[in-house]
Amino acid sequence: MRSLRDYACRLGWITLLGTAGCRAAPPSARATASDTAAPGAAASAVVASPDEMYELALPPRWEGHFRVDSLSKAERGRARPGAVVFEYVPSDSTLRPQALLVVAVYDSAAWSAVRAEGGPPPGDSVAARNGRVFVVGLPQSNPFAPGSPDATVFGVLQLRPGEVSTLVRLR
Hints:
Layout lengths: L3 H8 L3 E2 L16 H4 L8 E4 L5 E5 L7 E5 L2 H4 L7 E5 L9 E10 H9 L7 E6 L2 E6 L11 H9 L3 H7 E3 L1
Antiparallel strand pairs: 1-2, 2-3, 3-9, 4-5, 5-6, 6-8, 7-8
């Protein structure tokens, strides 16, 4: 399994800030855990977008339990290029990785069109600025068999409501 750093470097537009990154960020670009994480929790990694419009503060319990990948044009739909998925890789190698988190940025007109379509939206708007809407998609349920080791880990990794509201930090 590749590390987050390997995936981040492969994607090219994600830079992990701090010691785990592809490159070090200037001190002004670093966020502290108190700025980005849920109260009482520290972020294990801060992930910055390539255009540096936002950062993501990931919870420490995620460390070593996920990989990062980009979404294809078909998967991201009307979202701007650069949509990213954080996947849990099950310990049972016969099972497929499952999304823990999807982050996408939409132009406001595209997001309005998506919201007007039938069915559930691909996520929830968590912020908006300069004609861009930042959307976070979470799993609707735990995809693993109840009681299985992967179901237990996936359940622990799922984001809590307080974490979602502080996950995306606009710059």
